[in-house]
UniProtKB/TrEMBL annotation:
<dbReference type="InterPro" id="IPR032675">
    <property type="entry name" value="LRR_dom_sf"/>
</dbReference>
<feature type="domain" description="F-box">
    <location>
        <begin position="14"/>
        <end position="61"/>
    </location>
</feature>
<dbReference type="Pfam" id="PF12937">
    <property type="entry name" value="F-box-like"/>
</dbReference>
<dbReference type="InterPro" id="IPR047948">
    <property type="entry name" value="FBXL18_F-box"/>
</dbReference>
<dbReference type="GO" id="GO:0019005">
    <property type="term" value="C:SCF ubiquitin ligase complex"/>
</dbReference>
<dbReference type="InterPro" id="IPR045627">
    <property type="entry name" value="FBXL18_LRR"/>
</dbReference>
<dbReference type="GO" id="GO:0031146">
    <property type="term" value="P:SCF-dependent proteasomal ubiquitin-dependent protein catabolic process"/>
</dbReference>
<dbReference type="InterPro" id="IPR036047">
    <property type="entry name" value="F-box-like_dom_sf"/>
</dbReference>
<protein>
    <submittedName>
        <fullName>FXL18 protein</fullName>
    </submittedName>
</protein>
<dbReference type="Pfam" id="PF19729">
    <property type="entry name" value="LRR_FBXL18"/>
</dbReference>
<dbReference type="InterPro" id="IPR001810">
    <property type="entry name" value="F-box_dom"/>
</dbReference>
Length: 706
């Protein structure tokens, strides 16, 4: 009787969800996808029926990563709450048929609309925009076949009121830019290939009658990101030509991200000269050829800068301090700084300096003191070697940046200098970093318990201290300074990789274990850590970093053998929140044990494996796909034959496509000559976010688009 009465008392004291206040319930419901709220949750009871239609939940509808949404759900959603929607984000919904866009016309009050990655024809766009008179922000793709002459006068009237435009170009065109006469923010993504599918060379010349028509007089933000290719450079010059004639007076952010060589011309020089005379900038990014060897930075004026990117520039630390940081004045506003590939940025001058020489700690100290509010910092793709001076190690100086949320560092920069000087090279350091047969060596046994690892050496290391001081870090990238992915964008797969930096030879399991201190870590990238012996540090991360959503591992340990496989499988059993996993490692064996461990990642949505001479087990892949119901992307580029890859890809699509409308499967031999043709069909969302390897810290200004 006592037990029964105790249970009754416990039940009577239990908390009923419906007894919470409306404010608390609305906050809880804000984490539920809008499609579930409107189509499912609101049908459970009267109270939830009212709350699910609250304006705070229906004014902004985000479908961009709702991989379960289909055409019918969108249709019903627009019928039920279309008039209540002010912001609609369907970016990357590549699986929805183009006819889905027709239902957006029900959203008469739309102010912001993002259709990037959706299939939209000129006629459909015209019909839709003709009804959206309140629209002020628009994001679309411009695909081959786009014809601006098909846009109606009502559509053009809507575009004339648009203030923000994001346009991704897959064909040479101005798109809808000429119709947007009131633009204040223009974001351009150039994804035009140099050759058509038939092999014909494309021209960057725009159609007759389209030239000299963009309206930039009200422009405040200009951003252009170019994929590799000559045609992209040709087309962006045409967009810039109008800017060079008359620079907008209110321009405060000018950003051009261009890979490789993008030469400066007379027109672009005139544009930069005009900017130096007439505007004060808050954000700046320029191609390296426009900055290298010029005195441009000395003449540009800045107001309250929040973003700088000097990626791949030969800018020296002396110039950085004098011309950009300006002795520490007015740089408290800077929140994001990208110095990726800027090999001399922490040295006083670059004329007689080798890239591997020690950094000048006083320059980094000036940077840290001047930019004390930095939240995003990228120092990757360079050799930043600290000297033996006590207290001046790069990690010690960076530990002062208490507001950092994302950080990218080269592997050689986190080495404890004193340890390197005192310790002779170990057998593992002397292992050749090449493919082929390896000499058997003794492998040191590392304990898997975090406390035991800490007791060995890492508590006293500068990297351990850095990780301990950046407790709120959400994104961390540790990438070898000479690392290059085996899957570049528009070329065949790279067959050979450069050896790691000598200073990086000692970085391994203990440094990885130090990362486990980052309790709030959400995204982790580790590439080219040569001294990984067992991968034991990965287990610590899996146990401690319970918020981890994105994990990318590449070329860890010896190149001829996956030495960390056992530890990786143990780690994955604890990664309940992991959504994206990218693995790049030669000779990787994706077998039954690996996929069984991966099946513990119940939230996993996207998987990408890149492995030269790697193998896979088809039955294990099929079983994994059947067990992990959330997986909608499976990309594997291995050493298997074309027949094996095609058969497995077809089996996955045939078995799971019906229940997973967003399913995207690409299984293909890594070294096959047609790889680039296969890559071009991958949805841009997956290609840009996971399939292609790159550093993403401070890649763009924060909050560039909503």
């Amino acid at each position: 009787q006592e037990i029964v009465s105790g249970e009754s008392e416990e039940e009577s004291n239990g908390v009923n969800l419906m007894e919470f206040s409306d404010e608390i319930l609305l906050h809880i419901l804000s984490y539920v996808p809008c499609t579930d709220l409107v189509l499912n949750v609101r049908r459970t009871c009267r109270k939830l029926a009212t709350l699910c239609l609250d304006k705070s939940l229906t004014q902004t509808v985000l479908l961009q990563k709702d991989y379960k949404v289909n055409k019918d759900k969108v249709k019903q959603l627009m019928r039920d709450i279309g008039k209540e929607i002010y912001q609609l984000n369907m970016a990357g919904c590549y699986w929805l048929p183009s006819s889905t866009i027709d239902h957006v016309t029900r959203c008469k009050n739309l102010v912001k609309l993002n259709l990037s990655g959706c299939h939209v024809t000129s006629l459909r766009l015209s019909k839709m925009l003709s009804t959206l008179q309140h629209l002020r922000s628009l994001a679309i793709d411009v695909n081959p076949g786009f014809d601006a002459s098909q846009l109606s006068s009502e559509c053009k009237a809507t575009l004339s009121r648009v203030l923000e435009l994001k346009q991704t170009l897959y064909t040479p065109s101005y798109g809808v830019v000429p119709c947007c006469t009131s633009l204040e923010k223009l974001l351009l993504y150039f994804e035009i290939l140099d050759r058509s599918r038939e092999g014909f060379m494309l021209s960057g010349q725009l159609m007759v009658g389209e030239s000299n028509v963009p309206h930039y007089q009200n422009l405040r933000v200009f951003y252009a990101r170019l994929a590799p290719g000559y045609v992209n450079q040709e087309v962006v010059r045409l967009y810039l030509a109008v800017l060079s004639d008359r620079t907008p007076e209110n321009l405060h952010a000018f950003l051009i991200s261009a890979p490789g060589s993008f030469a400066e011309t007379g027109a672009t020089k005139n544009l930069l000269d005009s900017m130096a005379r007439n505007v004060r900038l808050d954000a700046l990014q320029l191609p390296k050829a426009w900055i290298n060897g010029s005195g441009l930075l000395q003449h540009l004026k800045f107001n309250n800068p929040f973003y700088f990117s000097f990626s791949r520039c030969t800018l020296s630390g002396g110039h950085l301090i004098q011309r950009v940081i300006n002795g520490g004045k007015d740089l408290k506003s800077l929140t994001s700084l990208n110095l990726s590939g800027c090999v001399h940025c922490l040295a006083p001058e670059s004329l007689f300096r080798k890239a591997e020489d020690d950094i000048d700690s006083s320059i980094l100290e000036s940077l840290v003191v001047s930019c004390c509010n930095l939240r995003h910092l990228n120092l990757s793709a360079a050799h930043h070697h600290s000297s033996e001076s006590i207290g001046n190690h790069l990690c010690q100086l960076l530990s002062r940046l208490k507001h950092l949320l994302s950080l990218a560092l080269p592997v050689c920069s986190i080495t404890d200098v004193a340890a390197n000087v005192e310790k002779p090279p170990t057998a593992s350091n002397l292992v050749p970093q090449t493919f082929g047969r390896k000499v058997r060596i003794g492998i040191q046994t590392y304990p898997r318990n975090l406390a035991d690892q800490a007791n060995q050496k890492i508590e006293s290391s500068v990297f351990w201290a850095l990780m301990g001081s950046l407790r709120f870090l959400e994104t961390l990238e540790i990438i070898g300074s000479s690392f290059s992915s085996a899957m570049p964008r528009n070329e065949p797969a790279i067959r050979n990789s450069l050896p790691p930096c000598v200073r990086a030879q000692s970085v391994g399991d203990s440094e990885v274990a130090a990362i486990s201190q980052l309790t709030y870590l959400q995204s982790l990238t580790l590439a080219q850590l040569p001294n990984i012996l067992t991968g034991s540090g990965l287990i610590s991360i899996g146990l401690q970093c319970q918020h981890l959503r994105t994990l990318s591992l590449a070329n860890l340990g010896m190149m001829g053998k996956v030495v960390y496989m056992s530890a990786l499988m143990d780690m994955l059993k604890h990664c309940k929140c992991l959504r994206d996993l990218r693995l790049e490692q030669p000779y990787f064996s994706a077998g039954a044990q690996f996929f069984q461990a991966l099946s513990h990642c119940s939230s996993l949505q996207r998987l990408c494996i890149v492995s030269r001479s790697g193998t896979l087990q088809s039955d294990a892949v099929m079983s994994f796909m059947a067990n992990c119901l959330e997986v909608i992307m499976c990309h594997m580029f291995m050493g298997e034959s074309l027949t094996v890859c095609k058969n497995l890809q077809q089996s996955i699509v045939r078995s799971f496509q019906a229940d997973r409308p967003a399913l995207n499967v690409v299984i293909f031999p890594l070294l096959h000559e047609d790889l680039t043709e296969v890559i071009r069909d991958v949805p841009m969302r997956h290609l840009d976010e996971i399939t292609l390897f790159k550093s993403r810290v401070a890649e763009e200004p924060p909050n560039l688009w909503w």
